[in-house]
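Researcher: Go.
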Amino acid sequence: MKFFSDVLRASSLLRAQRLCALLVLIFCLSAVTGTPSGTPAFTRVIPGQTLNFPRDFGAHPDFRTEWWYATGWLHTPDGKLLGFQVTFFRSATEHDAANPSRFAPKQLIVAHAALSDPAVGKLVHDQKIARTGFGLAHASQATTDVKLHRWTMRREPDGRYQIALPTRDFTLSLTLTPSQPVMLQGEQGYSRKGPVAGQASYYYSEPQLKVTGQITRKGKPVTVNGSAWLDHEWSSSLLDPRAVGWDWVGANLDDGSALMAFRIRTVDSQALWQHATLRDAHGRLRAVSADSIRFTPLREWRSPRTGARYPVAMQMDLGDIRWRLTPLQDDQELDSRQSTGAVYWEGAVTIERDGKPAGRGYFEMTGYLKALKL
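Model: Structure:
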């Protein structure tokens, strides 16, 4: 679901340790370029809007927050299974949008990359952050074309995504090829995230992407193939004040179907808002009513680094279907306090439907460290 509007607020970014140098630069430049004249009026998400492609594959800088999220499972030639995550965030700051200076930090680009390999025993990940401009970082409005230093995600005219991310510990060089149409989430792309209509995002997915490419570790490239799921969301609103986090899953099912489900949680793990959609291989959508959705934790894992407890094995009752999520490995916690300020669990999971193997996906859980402190 990737509703990072609150963790990407300026206050969260200012808490990130590695932003110190950037902040010093911003404060120094304010003496030259002038201080912000007021909070920009970000565009709001409203129902009834029609998403327009290919334009909406691109960035929406008038909205506060946006992200492109690719997750998937990979196969190596020796039969090993790996999970990967690639995320690019665009966040509009509260700096005066009318400031003509090229140095004005109006937009920030943040990126996360992660590799899940049970042979390693924990998530291997990296993160970057920079303001747009000077050829270092950008998010094109024409189509998906996001760059942060040498990290890139680009959509080709034929719909394929090219991903290139050289991190500290691994390099991803992947091509994601669509096999199905875009999946509009919520009400034709208008996705509610709370009891108030304005608590929403524009949201579409591209499930069942075919993946080919290479992963390089310690200078050794390995050919991989597999499947992926891509989410693109943009919004200007924050979560309901009672919300502490969310649980989200996107799954490519073996029969060609696609499943997306999420719940927004309160501090006592009650569902403040929830939604689920199942699209079959023929494109038929089935929305599950909120009162027939139930998330039931089956097993917890405690992070040895942060102390947060995550329900890494989860049962989801969606109407008359019972789903079970089982992690590829327990330790898939990503500490992004050096970029977004958040600590969350984002991991590869297998999916069972009514007790039978049904597919693979990615499960995201946020707010568990925050809940621990409340």
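Model: The chain has one domain: 10-37+45-373.
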